[in-house]
């Protein structure tokens, strides 16, 4: 079968690999679609811990179960499934174990024609989604779901700010918060993304390139109960200024680096939370899929291209111009 | 009656005041003991917002109910009570309202022979405590209780680090965490305080004056689930290094100022919480008093002096040499 692997630092190639053999509780999935995450490009660029060569990359995937190893899994055969990319979350629902990893290095991932997966990690594709749409869900959807609900505790009627709208996780955080009945605001540096968010139901959209943009939402909207962020940097102190008392700032990345200070005074007097978050546990993955089905969430797709062109997808994911997920189909 | 007021910026004096008159649901309390908080000295030094002159200072007090305004409050008469120093917490248990203030400016406080208080803010003195001991509880105990249990969610068996042991709140956080069955560690810059903590049951005590002190607890104790801190500053990044995944850093002050950076990367990967906290709601005050009664917590008292010498108590509270609360008796 064909599969995409890192053959040397910085070099990804589609190579011929042996089709995986399944045993025990595994099922064999023939992939229909897969989606990219920044993680994939970070691995290509050598910006990820414990990089290994010759491992199939890719965390997000949807396909048909074509083979099962035990009779008990017979009902899965022929079904389209979406794969939970968690490996070894562990027994503590609050946080991943030391053995935790994400599908697609060190374990073989979804950028291949076939993948062997434990039966506990597959879920039926939500009925309202195509395989391409469903392939966009796993890593971004799970990360957004935990950030929004486990840590952010977003409730209907709350004011929620999603920074960096258009990013793979941010788009889900935006849609999930909307579906939960919150008043959702976004920031972006690009006007077209702000327009997209407003069209999709944002209560407000702010261009963070404008100096003091944050003073406007504060003055006009009464502040935010929850901010979902992945940029970090000095902006965190602006968020602290525009939080309502008891508010929660949840971040799942720090692409702008570390802040030069932190306004602890405002934080303790207003009882604010600054909460780190990453991924989500297996139960949350199931809840996320159920939530997407129930609320009929449709992932934003930036583009779909054939698997053969996946290298160009890696090039695109590094850019800030995309809005939504980049998908490849087989 | 005699009462301590700020007569000019920086100047506190015991003056003659009219005994308060009670109406409605108020009761009149003849004070037996009161305790100081750093807040009192901050007010004296002009380091507190909205300072007003000629207001009786003092947030912590215990006394006997000598007069009630309604028959329904007759059962309170003759009882020794401890006063909840919250004023107008508001309806949201998570965070205080904008109208919130602390007893003892702008409302008349406990540094006087008599005080008028609403009946909803008095609680019977725990049976195992003297009035001097109980007077040490309110502000420090409430702040510690919320930090430990509402925000810190301390459970038995967890590793808890209390920074700055000996401070008015830290001593309660230490004792509450111990009483909850946690393994409690402390830091202090003074060896005699570390010795006191070890004698009282600390699982470990670290002198933060030693460079890299934090590397030892990390290497030998497996890290902390909860840190309770009021110093802030760059030390926060050391705490982040020694937290277990899913750990919570709760701070109720920032006496060392703001940190020069914040390790967001470790925070999100380990799903750490940095949580601001201040005071606690009225329900928590009641729970704190019940907890103290049930667990037979005895506040650490640094010294007790007559009310007439209260100015010297203000001088002492600013110093780092004290261990426990400074109390005045009437």
UniProtKB/TrEMBL annotation, chains A, B:
SMART domains cross-referenced by the UniProt entry: PKS_ER (SM00829)
Signal peptide start-end: none
Enoyl reductase (ER) domain residues are 7-328
Q: Which domain of life is it from?
A: Bacteria
Coiled-coil portions: none
Cross-referenced InterPro entries: ADH-like_C, ADH-like_N, ER, GroES-like_sf, NAD(P)-bd_dom_sf, Zinc_ADH-like
A Pfam family hit: ADH_zinc_N
User: GO MF terms on file?
Assistant: oxidoreductase activity
Q: What is this protein called?
A: Alcohol dehydrogenase
